[in-house]
Design goal:
Strand order of the largest sheet of chain A: 1-2
CATH superfamily of the largest domain in chain B: MetI-like
Radius of gyration of chain B: 24 Å
Order of helices and strands of chain B: HHHHHHHHHHHHHH
CATH architecture of chain A: Orthogonal Bundle
Number of helices of chain A: 13
CATH superfamily of chain A: MetI-like
Number of strands of chain B: 0
Low-confidence stretches of chain B: none
Low-confidence stretches of chain A: none
Order of helices and strands of chain A: HEEHHHHHHHHHHHH
CATH architecture of the largest domain in chain B: Orthogonal Bundle
Number of helices of chain B: 14
CATH topology of the largest domain in chain B: MetI-like fold
Largest sheet of chain B: none
Mean pLDDT of chain B: 87
Oligomer: heterodimer
Largest sheet of chain A: 2 strands, antiparallel
Helix content of chain B: over 70%
Shape of chain A: globular
CATH topology of chain A: MetI-like fold
Number of domains of chain A: 1
Number of domains of chain B: 2
Mean pLDDT of chain A: 90
Strand content of chain B: under 5%
CATH class of chain A: Mainly Alpha
Shape of chain B: globular
Radius of gyration of chain A: 23 Å
Helix content of chain A: over 70%
């Protein structure tokens, strides 16, 4: 081995070791575990072949989890990507001056907060007796719409999704702010000379120019929805019943409450394959965009 | 001033209304937190939307002694160790890659590069079951290391790529000079590369702090003892213990959120440039 190759090996060894042990090994082990039945409290495993996956296909809770994840992804793309882009375009208008920078940072603030903190605050807002949302509804004469938002299976998942939107819009907005900064100014100047108003400029210049970031932001929000755990876990625990269960909370419950580690590993494999498919789709879309 | 501007450009009214509305939506929960952290439970129950009539600063002292202080210190330890470990390992690996690429063995460096890309594609959720088993086997379960090591592992790929991009810009001449002066390769890293990369190292430190301070999934599973829990996990116990003491609970929430918000205000530039590189959200 040459000296340089030896150098590279030595310098990257700590990285390869840590990532190998804590990222790649678990990924492979997870696939192996998904073909076993075992308990968290015993070292013995029983190979069960495809049984976990067969069960997955017929598990009604998995179906609910998939529907909820789909809802999560669709609403997140709508709120975060669509509204985030609109916000970013507005905040890039010259007339806002120094306000633009201030508002960008301010809208970003929820992103840096711990989800536990945010979820607790929204638990107060959703409270059926004293919560702000029901009080607001009563104040504007919509008392009939009052609900136990987190306690009813019809509304629980939407109430959970809303909290995620509040936290994450600022993040996607910021990605678009950066993308818009990269658009050549003269495109807008030329459009203005041609008589295009701000709305036309948004659709004919901003949107096509940030196309790559649109793909990236969509992929980030969709993979985030596939793996979402904290919000439903803290706000509803997946309930009432299984109404707000998502893949990750179901995996957690299978592993640590029902002690079916093999089944949990199979759910984790599904999460992995789903996120991989979205990421590969991103690569393909990028290929086409170029 | 904006009001005068509106009069001159009435067409901007819808846009400004939208911004004002979104400002209220973002601001209100933050205002609610701070104002209710200074109220008695009775007042929160009666009027949670208004300002406190009497400012109960004791809520903060009580939240601190009734558990938050312990969680806070655990978070400081875990976050600090994760930052140190992540930066050290990333700087070494990025340096190794840049040097290998410069001396014609870029192929070998590609292995490290690919490991970074592949590592970024693995969501921590997917590794949960095997990591849980591994922590038990290694005897790390229920210790701070059970968080520090996986946190570091999941931050390394993106951090290495960010650091490498900056290391690539270090002029080769400086590198050669240092070699002629008799520096060994580690001294070149220490005396030449690191001082020239302060800004990216700070960015990476800030992003790692954000991740480690807020991480929730591993934090609730790999640690059982209340006395070892970090803030996001500890708050769950804190809430259960304070079910009837809302003012103290909300004060605890403010204390939990404050350090990262302060860090964001102080180091905004590093936060935003780091996040903007994309795909770095936890």
């Amino acid at each position: 081995m040459s000296r340089r190759a030896l150098d590279l090996t030595i310098y990257s060894l700590p990285f390869l070791l840590v990532v190998g042990v804590f990222v790649f090994y678990p990924l492979i082990a997870n696939f192996y575990y998904s073909f076993q039945a075992f308990s968290a409290f015993s070292p013995t495993m029983r190979p069960v072949g495809l049984e976990n996956y067969a069960r997955l296909m017929n598990d009604p809770v998995i179906r609910i989890a998939f529907v909820n994840v789909g809802l999560y992804a669709a609403l997140s793309v709508l709120c975060q990507v669509a509204f985030g882009l609109v916000l970013a375009a507005i905040l890039s208008q010259a007339f806002l001056g120094r306000w633009a920078r201030f508002l960008q940072a301010f809208f970003f603030l929820p992103v840096v907060m711990s989800i536990t903190v945010i979820a607790f605050v929204f638990t107060f807002f959703y409270d059926p007796m004293t919560g702000l949302i029901n009080e607001l509804l009563a104040a504007v004469g919509l008392g009939a719409w009052q609900r136990a938002w987190l306690g009813e299976s019809a509304t629980a998942i939407y109430a959970v999704i809303a909290v995620s939107q509040w936290q994450s819009i600022g993040y996607v907005m910021m990605l678009f702010v950066v993308a818009i900064q990269g658009i050549p100014r003269d495109l807008y100047e030329a459009a203005e000379l041609d008589g295009a108003g701000p709305v036309a400029q948004f659709f004919y210049i901003t949107v096509p120019q940030v196309r790559e970031m649109l793909i990236v932001a969509t992929v980030i929000t969709v993979t985030g929805s596939i793996t979402v755990f904290s919000e439903p876990h803290i706000l509803t625990g997946g309930g009432p019943g299984n109404s707000s269960t998502v893949l990750a909370t179901y995996m957690y419950r299978s592993a640590f409450f029902r002690d079916e580690m093999g089944y949990a590993a199979a759910i984790a494999s599904v999460i992995f394959v789903a996120t991989m498919m979205v990421s590969l789709l991103q690569l393909r879309l990028f290929g086409k965009a170029k | 001033m904006i009001p005068a501007a509106i009069l001159r450009h009435p067409g901007r009214l819808p846009v400004i209304t939208l911004l004002a509305l979104h400002t209220v939506i973002v601001a209100y929960p933050l205002f609610w937190m701070v104002s209710n952290s200074l109220k008695t439970t009775q007042e929160i129950y009666a009027a949670s939307w208004s300002l406190p009539t009497r400012w109960v600063f004791e809520n903060y002292a009580e939240a601190w002694v009734r558990g938050i202080s312990g969680y806070f210190m655990n978070s400081v330890i875990v976050t600090g160790s994760t930052i140190a470990l992540t930066l050290a390992i990333s700087a070494l690996a990025a340096f190794g890659m840049v040097r290998a690429e410069a001396s014609g063995i870029g192929r070998a460096a590609n292995v490290v590069f690919l490991a970074c890309i592949a590592g970024m594609l693995v969501a921590p959720q997917v590794a949960l079951v095997p990591l849980y088993k591994m922590m038990q086997t290694l005897g790390l379960h229920n210790s701070h290391l059970a968080l520090i090591l996986p946190y570091t592992a999941y931050r390394l790929p993106i951090t290495i790529l960010l650091v490498r991009a900056v290391f690539l810009a270090v002029p080769r001449d400086l590198d050669d000079c240092a070699n002629i002066d008799g520096c060994n390769s580690f001294q070149v890293l220490w005396h030449v590369y690191l001082p020239m990369s302060r800004s990216i190292l700070l960015t990476c430190a800030v992003l790692t702090a954000y991740y480690a301070w807020n991480e929730f999934l591993f934090a609730i599973i790999f640690i059982d003892s209340d006395r070892l829990k970090t803030i996001p996990a500890g708050l769950m116990n804190f809430r259960d213990a304070l079910m009837t003491d809302w003012g103290v609970l909300v004060a605890g929430l403010v204390i939990a959120a404050a350090p990262i918000i302060l860090l964001f205000i102080v180091a905004q530039r590093y936060f935003l440039s780091g996040f903007a590189t994309g795909a770095v959200k936890g």
